[in-house]
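ARCHIVE CARD
Drawer: 12
Card no.: 0347
Subject: one protein chain, sequence and derived structure
Cross-reference: see card 0346
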Amino acid sequence: MRNINRILNFALICMMTAMFQQYLNIKGKLDDERRFRDSSNEKESQRTLTESLSLFGSSVWCNGDNHTSRLCTFHNLCYSPARHEYMFFHSNMSVLYGLPEDRFSPALQDMASVTNHTMNYFNYVDYHLSVAKELSIKMLPGTTLLLNRFKPDNLMHVIHDDILPMFSTMRNEMKIADMTSHGVRLASMEGQEPGDFSALYELFSSHKLLFKNDLLQQSVICFEKAHVGVSKRSTWYQYGFYEPQGPIRQTQANGCMFREFAAFMRAQLNIKLVNKNLKKYAVVISRKINRRILNEAELLMAVIEVLGIRTVTVSVESHSITELIKIVSEASVLVVHGSTKTQTTP
């Protein structure tokens, strides 16, 4: 009886091994076919987009009265890492809409939300379409939002200068209804390293965040559709490049815009809030290196005495981004150092 059981077990193992090997063979063939199909589709897509460039050249549509308010959308805008320039290929099918008479005084537009900073000026170089036929070009399909991050190593600048304007641009200028489901790619073109807060930018696209340094190996890369720059309507502070720093006069930023942005960020980071009335507290944002609150202990005692609620101290050095957002969102009062004021959170 034991011998029969052993024989049956051995036969079963052999059969299962053969079936598993057959599964691996079939899976391997299917994977090879999928890779071949994907490769073929990519080659076909590249061929189609390259033919579109060779037939229609580049086109541009701009809206805005001057370079600080102007935003432009391009079809077949190209970038040459070797030349460090954007390339526009003219054909008899090219559309040029909304361009100023002089786009070089001082630039066509800004690529960042910080107004009139020379490092963020955008323009392109004109070429005849025949030049494109002599270049090795890689086409990037779909829509890409090209921007310059201003100071990606500072959380305040990341929020105020980059990701809040990105959100405003995608919602209001690019007319994206569902911010959690779209095909827009983000390209950071200022040339800085990704930085500690790059994950925040990645919340805005299902594509991997594209950096200027990623393009260095390409001869010329052409964006099928490129939206250049971000809207300034969500910014409320200027940094004193042309006048003493302070609040932006007549800013278009408003509470509705901020609450919509905050809700999107919390959803993307899977942050769930509790009713702030259940545990009222004040948050003091502390800084460890510069702009420190020298009388922080005295400030904490004053908040407790005046408001009658407990205080919580947080900092970028001691808390994660998710922790900071959750703690601040649930607070009744926010106390920060610098040009901003103590605020009651909505």
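Annotation on reverse: The two ends are 78 Å apart (CA to CA). Confidence is low (pLDDT under 50) at residues 339-346.
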